[in-house]
Write a structure and sequence with these properties.
CATH architecture of the largest domain: 3-Layer(aba) Sandwich
CATH topology of the largest domain: Rossmann fold
CATH class of the largest domain: Alpha Beta
Number of domains: 3
Largest sheet: 6 strands, mixed
Helix content: 25-40%
Number of strands: 20
Distance between the termini: 60 Å
Length: about 525
């Protein structure tokens, strides 16, 4: 198929979106039933949202629909006709495509080259003049604008997401499945991408099915929603007829509190914060390749406040956290905790009451093969009443460590409630709870937290947010680094934006202009101070 024919075909099949229906779909993996007679209906030309906690069956359902996991029972209907989707090739034939959460682009190649690679029918010799003319005609038929000659490595995250979508449109897809499409985008980029797709559904040219955990996106762009829980259909309906509370209750199976605004009046000028607990002065640090990652960064965190750091991943946040926790050496600048020089040694952490919840705690804050009780004792196994050295940590499972672990397990809702279980066998949310129990059960004066709920389900997210909120109200100073702006807006008293290793912007949480934060996250403004 030459480029011109391909473009005409793509334009023809995009004249309307596809109507898709799943009827009593069941999928098993051994003894596990991942989907149990799930049914849903996606109207042609609609923007349909798929919600559910981790493990609810969302990914399994869409992978069945695109042919990666053919179901044991049930069927799919496309435009009212039952279709056998046994492989990705069958899905392609039906013009069903998927955009995955992580980019699948060739970074060293151009936009045009990546589009042609998606086609899969390239001749041995490419007529670039003809191909680029056809690609330009294709781009003109879409609302997305990209430079065909731009190298992918030079594109912003939002432009890369557009290219992933364009690859599917270029293949002529009529149903586009999106898996957490805004997880790496700034707010402005997310709104632009979803807004453009929403416009295409309004024109009847495309049907979109989006997996998301952000209620704001559902409310802003969704026409209808389907909620899965533990592999079963928990509910569905028109977005305009459901509240956020309704959808949250479907997800967790019971009445839950859903914050639709910050939990406290963080920007109240009458509310007083305490003394400075953490002061960072002109901090410099390199990344793993020896290149500057943190560049003369200044910030302070006071007692009784949560300072949130926003930013697109890769702007020095990881290196900043590692310096603060003693996992990376600074190249310059100074750190002070409680007014004293701070080097993040074990003795200093203990003396100043510095605790942490790092990103990926199973890897960064646990010994995976050790038990829950032993991991809960990593902070203080060498002091009374647990002292006795490393051997005491390994062999006093039935002693003081286990008794305390049982108390923490109950207080923090760790499941299963077994202190002898290897922590690597717990779910992500329960690992987070176990580490949080260890870090918040002491005399916390300074808490350093990085992406605390990344990849966790709704219930685990709510529980951890409550714990952070309570620690702040009890007087702890908290530095919260998160790539989820909604999380920062909900929890923070002040928000700082980190861009290119510096603090580029700061604002009291109650006075946030999301568009302005997005501009600073994208590097579109000058640098400021974190004081």
């Amino acid at each position: 198929m030459d480029a011109l024919t391909h473009t005409l075909l793509a334009a023809d099949v995009q004249d309307r979106g596809a109507a898709v229906e799943a009827y009593r779909v069941t999928k098993r993996f051994g003894a596990l039933t991942a989907l149990d007679e799930v049914s849903l209906k996606v109207e042609a030309g609609s923007f349909h949202c798929l919600l559910g906690e981790n493990g609810a069956g969302k990914s399994t359902l869409v992978k069945c629909l695109v042919g990666y996991h053919p179901p044991e029972e049930g069927s799919f209907l496309v435009d009212g006709r039952e279709q056998a989707i046994r492989s990705p090739r069958d899905a392609q034939r039906l013009r069903i495509g998927m955009v995955y959460q992580h980019f699948t682009l060739a970074p060293g190649m151009t936009v045009a080259e990546n589009l042609l690679l998606a086609r899969g029918d390239l001749p041995l010799r490419i007529d670039w003049r003809r191909e680029k003319a056809a690609l330009a005609a294709f781009l003109a038929s879409t609302p997305f604008r990209l430079d065909l000659n731009a190298r992918v490595a030079d594109l912003a995250a939002g432009e890369k997401q557009k290219l992933e979508i364009l690859k599917q449109l270029y293949l002529g897809q009529r149903l586009l499945i999106l898996d957490e499409p805004t997880s790496v985008l700034t707010p402005a980029e997310a709104d632009e991408v979803l807004g453009l797709l929403h416009g295409m559904t309004r024109d009847g040219r495309l049907t979109v099915m989006m997996i998301t955990h952000k209620f704001r996106e559902v409310s802003a762009y969704g026409d209808s929603v389907t909620v899965l829980r533990r592999g079963k259909l928990a509910g569905s309906g028109k977005v305009g007829e459901l509240t956020t509370q309704d959808m949250a209750e479907m997800m967790v199976g019971s009445a839950v509190f859903v914050a639709t605004a910050p939990r406290r009046r963080a920007a109240d000028p009458e509310r007083k914060t305490g003394e400075i607990r953490l002061a960072v002065d002109r901090l410099c640090a390199d990344n793993d390749r020896g290149m500057p990652a943190v560049r003369e960064l200044d910030l302070v965190v006071r007692a009784g406040e949560i300072v949130g750091i926003a930013g697109v991943a890769g702007n020095g946040q990881k290196e900043l956290i590692e310096v603060l926790l003693g996992q990376r050496s600074a190249r310059g600048g100074a750190l002070r905790v409680d007014g004293e020089t701070y080097g993040a040694t074990r003795a200093e952490l203990r003396r100043h009451g510095v605790f942490s919840l790092p990103e990926e705690p199973l890897r960064n804050a646990c010994v995976p093969t050790m038990s829950v009780a032993e991991n809960m004792g990593l902070r203080d196994f060498d002091i009374a009443p647990f002292s006795g050295g490393w051997l005491s940590l390994r062999f006093l499972r039935r002693g003081a460590l286990t008794r305390r672990a049982k108390e923490w397990i109950e207080a923090f809702g760790v499941r299963p409630p077994d202190p002898s279980a290897a922590i690597e066998n717990l779910s992500g949310g329960n690992v987070q709870r176990a580490v949080l129990a260890r870090e918040l059960s002491g005399a916390v004066r300074l808490l350093i937290v990085a992406n605390p709920v990344f990849g966790l389900d709704f219930a685990a997210t709510e529980a951890i947010h409550r714990r952070l909120d309570q620690a702040r109200n009890d007087g702890a100073a908290i530095l919260l680094v998160s790539e989820d702006l909604d999380e920062l807006l909900e929890l923070s008293d002040r928000i700082l934006v980190m861009s290119e290793g510096r603090i580029a912007h700061q604002v009291l949480a109650g006075y946030v202009d999301v568009a302005e934060i997005g501009r600073h996250m994208a590097g579109g403004a000058g640098h400021g101070t974190g004081h």
